[in-house]
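Supplementary material to the annual report.
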Amino acid sequence: MTSGDEGLARGAQASDPSHDAGAPIAEHRSRTHATVETVLRNRLAVAGLVILAVLVLAAIIGPWVIPYEINEIDIANRLTGPSTDHWFGTDELGRDVFSRVVVGARVSLVVGFVAVGIALILGVPIGLISGFYGGATDSTLMRFMDILFSLPAILLAIAILAVLGPGIVNAMIAIGIVYTPIFARITRGSVLTIRQSVFVRAAESLGATNNRILRTHILPNVMAPIIVQTSLSLAFAILAEAALSFLGLGVQPPEPAWGRMLAEGRSFFEQAPWMAIFPGLAIVLTVMAFNFVGDGLRDALDPQQRSVIESRGVG
Amino acid sequence: MNGTSRSRIGMLVMMILAIALIVAACDSGESVDTGETTTTAASGGETTTTAGEGGEDTTTTAAAAPEGGGILIAAQGAEPDRLDPHLTSAYASFQVLENVYDTLVQPGPDLSMEPALAESWEISDDNLTWTFTLRSDVVWHNGRAFTADDVVYSYDRIMDPDFGANNAFRFASIEEVTAVDATTVAIQLSRPTPNLLVNIGAFKGMAIVPREIVEDGTIDTNPVGTGPFRFVSSSPDQGIVLERNPDYWRASEGLPYLDGVTFIQIPDPTVKLTNLRSGEVDWVDTVPPQQLAALEGDSSVVVQRVPGGDYHYFALNQNREPFNDVRVRQAIATAINREEIAEAAQFGAATANQTAIPAGTFWSYDYAPFTASDTAAATALLEEAGVSDLTIEFLVTSDFPETVTQAQVIAAQLDAIGVGVEIRDVDFSTWLDAQGGGDFDAFMLSWIGNIDPDDFYYAQHHSTGGFNFQGYNSPEVDQLLDAARVETDQNARKALYDQAATLIVDEASYTYLYNPENINAWGPQVTGYEVRGDNAIRFVETQLQR
Amino acid sequence: MTGYVLRRIGQMVLALLGVSIIVFALIHLVPGDPVRTALGTRFDQEVYEALRARAGLDQPIVVQYFTWLGNAVTGDLGVSFRSGVPVTTLLLQRLPATITLAFAALFVALVVAIPLGIVSAIRSGSRLDYAATATSQVAVSVPDFWAGIMYILLFSLVLSWLPPSGYVSFFEDPLEWARHLALPALTVGLISGSIIFRFVRSSVLEALNQDYTRTARAKGLTERQVIWRHVMPNAWIPIVTVVGLQLGFLLSGVIVVEVIFAWPGLGRLALLSVQDRDFTVLQGAVLLIAFMFLLINLVVDIVYGWLDPRVRYD
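Predicted assembly:
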C-alpha cells in the first residue's frame, strides 16, 4: 500500500463514519436500554440503588438536618446509650453518634468515588494501550501492573500513605493506586477479545487510525466490564478506607468517617457498643448496596465477566 | 475429558490437604504457654524441662522452688524491638530487661535510689569521686563471676561516642570509670553530680552487661544478665521466655519465687484484657482507662493504680510566629481546661497539673498560675499580642491514641477564643521526624519514667537541651538549671528547680496537662506484685497461687 | 510446557526485582528513618549520627540499594535495624503462622463455599439459594477486623469457648493449635468463602445452561450423573482461578486480622517494619509475600491447563 492509498483510505473513512461505526454503536445504545431494564428487574439491585440514593441524600443535605453539631464535645454526657435525645447514643467525647454517622456518609462516598475514579483514570488507559498495541508496550505496562498487584494491597496503601502523609486526599490517592492494576487488567482482557472481532478488523482493514479505532470501537465495547468493576470497586474502596482508618491512617480527626468511628468505638465496645455498631452498620449497608448494584449490572451487561472481578483482597 | 478431569480434581483436593498438613507439620517450636499444662507440672514439684536456645536443654529442679512458683504469662501491648539494653529505647524491651539485668543501684519502692549490684558507695569531699563497693556474690547467668571490670566495660560502652548508646547523655559528667579492685569501682566526675545515682541506675538502659555477649554478637538474641530471671528464648509465636535464675544474688531470700516468666505480645488492648479475664494470661501491662469502672466489680481481675511520674504536655513551636510571643502561649495555656482534658483522655485515672512533677514527692512543686477556661484573659492576651485568625496545627500520633483524643478536646476548648486547631495525626516515626525537623506548630506527647528533676527539666527546657524541640530560650532558666545540676544540698537544689519551674510554666515552654496513674492488672492468682511509680515491671517478688 | 514455566519464572524474577525497587524507593521517601525511630523521644544528634554510620545509612540511596541487592543475591537479606536479628531468621519465624492461617482459612472457605455453591446453583431460586446468596452478600460487606472483634467478644468473652488470640504450634499441642486457629481462620475464611461461593454458584449455573448439559439430560442420565459427569468438570476451571487468587490474598493480605488476633505472621512483621522504617525487614517480608503470590499465580495457571487440556501454553 502506498502512502497515497493510505491517505485516500483515511479520507474515505472520515467522510463516511457510519460505514464502520454504525452497527456496534447502535448495538451499544439498545444494550444500554436493555441494561437499565434488566437492572431494574433485579430486586436486590433496586434495593441497592435505593440505599445509595438515601446515602447520597444524607451526604448532600446531612449537615443541615442533623440534630447536633458533629464536633460538639460534652464530656458530662459521654458514652450514653441510644435515647430520644441521641438516637445512636454518644461517643467517648459526648458527641452525637447519629449526627456523625449521617455526615460520615459524605466522607465514605467521596473517598469511594474519588479513589475509584483515580483507579479508572489510571487503569483504563493503561489497559487500552496495553491491549491494543501489544508487544513491548503491553509487556512493559502489564509487568508493572503485575508488580503492583503482587504487593499486598493494604501494605501498599499504608506505604503510600506513609510517604504522602495521612489524610483524606492521600487516602484516596493510595486506594486509587492500589486498585489501578485491576482496571488495567480487565480493560486489557476485554480489548484483546474485542480486537479480534469482525468489526474492529474491518475498521483496521479500512485504514482507520488507531486512535479512532480505540475511541469509537474498542472503548464503547469494553465499557461493560469496567462499569461492573467500578461498582464493585466502590465497595472495596469503602472497606479499604475503613481498614486504613482502623490503623489510624486516612481521614484526620475530628472529621467523622465511619472507619475511624468504628476504630475508636472498638476500644469502648463493652461500655458503649453503639459507638461501633452504627458506623459498622453504615459501612455494611453501603458496601452491600454497591455490591447489589454491581451484581445487577453484571447480570445485565456481562454475564461472562468473572476473572478478576470479585477478587476482594481481605484487609 | 470428563473422566480424567474428575480424577484430577480429586488429586487436587488431596494435594491441598497434603500441603495443609505439611505446613502444619513444618512449623516446629513450642506454643505460647497458656498456663495450664506446664504450670501444673511445675507447681506439682516435678521437674520441668525447657528447651533452651540452640537445642540445649536446661533443667530446673522445681522441688527446690519455693511455694508460689509456676510460670507467669505476662501480656505486653507492644513488641520489644531489641534486647541490647544500651541500644533500645522501647518500653516494651525494658519490661523484659528489668527482670534480666541489674544496675549498680536501682529505684526502691519510693523511687529513692537503693543498693543493687553495688552494696554501698562513698562520695569524696570535693564531690568529684564516687567509690562503689560491689557485691561479691553475684554470678552472671552464664556462670562467670561478676566483677568491677564488667562495670567499667559497660560504662565505657555506653560512653563510647562511636557506639551510639541511647543513654550516653546521662554519663555527660563522668570523666572516667576505673576498677580499683575486683569489687570496687571509682567514678571520676568533671563536675559535682548530685543525681549520679539516678543517672546510672534509674532504669535498665544503664544495665551492666558482660563483655562476652557483646563480643560474640549475641546480646540482642541471647542476653545474659545478673537479674532474677534468665533469658531462655524469644520467638514471635512463643514470646520471650525467661526462667528462674537459681543463682540470683537474692536467692538466700528465696527469690525469685516464680519458675519463669513468659512475655507475650498482644497489640489490641481489648483483646489483651479479654485474655486476662479468660485466664489465658496472668498479667497485663495496661488497662484501657475507660474499662476501669467496669473492672471494679470483676472478680477475675485485680487492677492496681498508683500515681506515676509520667506527665502529658504540649509544646508550641517558639521558632514560629506567633508562638514566639509569650502572650500567645499564655493565652492558649489559660484557655484550655486541664481537668476536662484529663477526664476525657484518662477517665479519672489522672490528676491535672500545671507543672511536670506530680504531687506527693520530695520534688513536687505546687504551682498553678492559669485559671482553667479563662476565655476573657486569653482573649485579652491574644488582643495584646495583636493576633487574630489563628489556626494551630497540632502534631499528634495514633500510636499514642490519647494524644488524638486530647487534641480534639483542646480544639473544642480553643474554639471558645476563636483559635482554630487542625489535627495532624501521623505515625510515630513521622511524628519524631516532624518534631526533630521543627515541622510543627504544636506537638503533644508525654514523658515517662523520669525520677530526678534534672530528668524533668534540663534536656527539655535548657537552651542547649537535646530535647528542646520547641525552641525555648531563657538565659535565666539556663542558669538555674545549670546551678541545680551541681548543687549538692538537697533543699537548695529543690529551691533552684522551683524557680526554674515557675519560669517554665509562666512562659509556657511546655504547657503541662496532667499526670496519669500507672495501671497494671493481673489475675487473682498473682500475689506479691506491685505497680511502681516509675512503671518498672519487676516480677522478682511475685508469686502464683493456683 | 517447560519453556512456558521457565519463561514465567524469568518474569517472576524480574517482577521481584521491580518489587524490591518500589519498596526501596517508597521506604526512603517516607519521612522518618529507623535510627530516629529507634532513638524515640530521647533524641541525640551525636548518637544519631554514630548509629547511622554504623548501619551504613549515611551512604547514598543507590549505593545502599545495590549493597542490599548484592547481599540478597547471595541469600543474605541483611539485619533488622530494629531488633538486630537477621532478616532471614525473622521471616522464617513468621512464615509458618502465615501459611497455617492462609490454608486454614482456605479450608474453611472451601468447606463452606463448594457444597453450598453447588446446591444453590442446582436449586437456583429456592429458599436455600436465597438464604445462602444473601448471607454471602452480607459477609463480603463486613469489614474483616470488625468481624474478628465480634467473634472474640462472642466466642471468647461471652461463651468462653475459644482463646481470643495467640498461636500454638501443631506439634506442641494439636488441640490448642486448632483452638487458637479457629477464630482468625473463621474471620478471613468466611469472607473468602463468600467470594468463592458466588463463583461456584455462577459457574455451576452457567454449566447447567450449556448445550452439553441439555444433551446429557436428553440422553436420559440421572440428575446426579449430569451434575458430576458433565456440569462440574466444566465448572471447576474458573473456580480454580478464584481459589488461587484468594489463596494469594490470604497469604499476603491479612495484616489487620493478624494485628487483632496477635497472630505472629508476616503481615504484622511487615506492618511493624513500615512503622519503624525497618526497611531491610520490610524488603524481605514484601519480597517473600510477593514471591508466594506470584508462585501461586503460576501454579494456578499450570493447574488450569492440567484441568483443561485445551489450554495451550504459548
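Chain C has a mean pLDDT of 85.
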